[in-house]
Amino acid sequence: MSEQHEETQKPELPHHIESEQATLGAILLDPNAIHDVRDILEVPEQFHEPKHSTIYKAILELADAGEPVDVVTLSKHLSDNGRIESVGGVAYLAMLSNSVPTAANVDFYAETVLQKWRARELIKASQEQAAALMYGDDIEEVLEKADRR
What we know:
Blueprint (H helix, E strand, L loop, with lengths): L1 H7 L8 H13 L3 H8 L9 H15 L6 H10 L8 H10 L7 H29 L4 H10 L1
Helix pairs in contact: 2-6, 2-7, 3-7, 4-5, 5-6, 7-8
């Protein structure tokens, strides 16, 4: 019976939590890393883990406001906006900054996050196309919509 349950279980969408953590940790370790990361990860939703999206959004908000980005300023910003508990508190932010020895590899970490996001987006698009075809949508319209993505 457990074999049957395992067969029907949906596989988890592509992601790499360690790369997400390392990307955020590298930014907290070296705030100048935000410039490199921002060129790769344009929106917070590219992170799979919701709390990482929230943290990255807060980092971008601080950077856009010209504020320094570190564990203290980030925790204050998240706390002021009622989001600190949803990301695991100050302890989680501190863990992120301690999770990477250097920010030198931040491009690699961010590229990994981006590739996993692209895979999730492709899966989502494929599922939408399959559903449209299953419900009888015109194949040419489905293909045209796919090309526009």
